[in-house]
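Q: I'm writing up a methods section and want to include an example of the input and output format. Could you take the sequence below and give the corresponding predicted structure tokens, formatted cleanly so I can copy it straight into the document?
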Amino acid sequence: MTASIPALSRRRMVARAELAGSALCFGLMAILARKLTLPGMGFSAGHLAVLRFVVGALVSLLAFGLIPGLYRPNNYRLLVARGLSGGAVVVLYFYALAHIPAGEAGILYNVFPVIAVVMSLVLFKERPTIHLWLAILAASLGVVLVLSQGHLGLGLGRGALAALAAAIFAATSANAIRAARHTENAATIFFFFCVAGLPVVVPFALSPWPGGFEAWGLAILMSLLAFGGQMLMSEAYGTLAVSEAAVWLQLLPIVQYLLAVPMLGERATGAGLAGVLITVAGVAYGTVLGHRRRA
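A: Here is the clean output for your methods example:
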């Protein structure tokens, strides 16, 4: 028994690192998606969603060909349900990025970990510790502080509503991934995410597609970053409970907010930076004290 506890601790540390890497990948993805939907680039939210799924499916097929036994589906119903909800997430989130600043879109969207925790209480009977609840609260308050700064308004326009709707579907997807990881590996879950999600987003990509080597290069890079972020997140859910993952996922809007300053010219303020520090402190607190100690 004593030998298994250090091994479990190592797996948890790896899973936390995977979520931090996932936040970085998704943050960069959002920055590029925002840039690609600005006037002059020509991509719509539907275009980017279709491209993300097509590139992801192709990379998955390549991996399946190179690694025998990697494709191992079991629960087809759960895999397809995760793909359909994920398709809704992608198109709604890209729509939000096309209509509001990347920092605001990321912060509104990232209420999904809190929603996911509430769902997990019912679906998996998870019982987060008081420390974990305090960590989620602190991290969420930090995100709210960033949101409340001057240039990020609280008005619910169509972009903000799309980001919030994406958050609800993302919470559903997070619990579906957590459930699927009992029988499926991360690569199989991601492949079904792409295949089942593609029909959801195709109707939003019927307008003429843009040209240009630079734009397409950035769009493919965005799709590869999305692939990396999704794979890392799915791997982490194989080890961490939804509630602990929720603390680390609060890093996503913070990374996105910080990256948007140099890469998109969005403005940072003192209140926003204070929110960043509070969120990071909440993540650290939840990491150290949030899990239940095993006998």
